[in-house]
Design a protein that fits this description.
The protein has about 120 residues and is mainly β. Helices cover about 10% and strands about 45% of the residues.
Length: about 120
């Protein structure tokens, strides 16, 4: 949970977790005015992920360091850069809801995100 308190409003961001890992793209943002009245709620929640995973978490066979090497081998232009974000998260948009390593790089002012399957080490498009 993150709270961003501004002068005109307060935003509360709730990040969904599944088996102690975040779920890619699953979060709710609640915006409150100065008096505490809810002004807006936005976000996405994928229901039933625990059942779809049959109540079983995934344990990565590929480490984040191995995923970094895979990302650089996939796009050699990323070699001089370090990831600005490294997150292991479940990907609800794929069959089986795999655990992936999501690496975000900044290159020439653009963000480049590469996802690597934590079991197979393959790039996910």
């Amino acid at each position: 949970m993150a709270i961003d308190q501004g002068t005109a409003s307060t935003k509360v961001t709730l990040q969904r977790k599944l088996f102690k890992h975040t779920v890619c793209g699953d979060q709710l943002v609640v915006e409150l005015d100065q008096t505490g009245v809810v002004q807006r709620i936005s976000g996405t929640v994928h229901p039933g992920l625990e059942e779809k995973r049959l109540g079983r978490p995934m344990y990565p066979a590929v480490s984040v360091e191995d995923a970094k090497r895979t990302a650089v081998a996939y796009d050699t232009s990323l070699m001089p850069f370090k990831p600005i974000s490294e997150v292991s998260c479940y990907l609800p948009s794929r069959n089986g809801i795999p655990l992936v390593h999501k690496l975000t790089y900044e290159k020439d002012g653009q963000l480049i995100t590469i996802m690597i399957h934590s079991m197979t080490g393959r790039i996910i498009q």
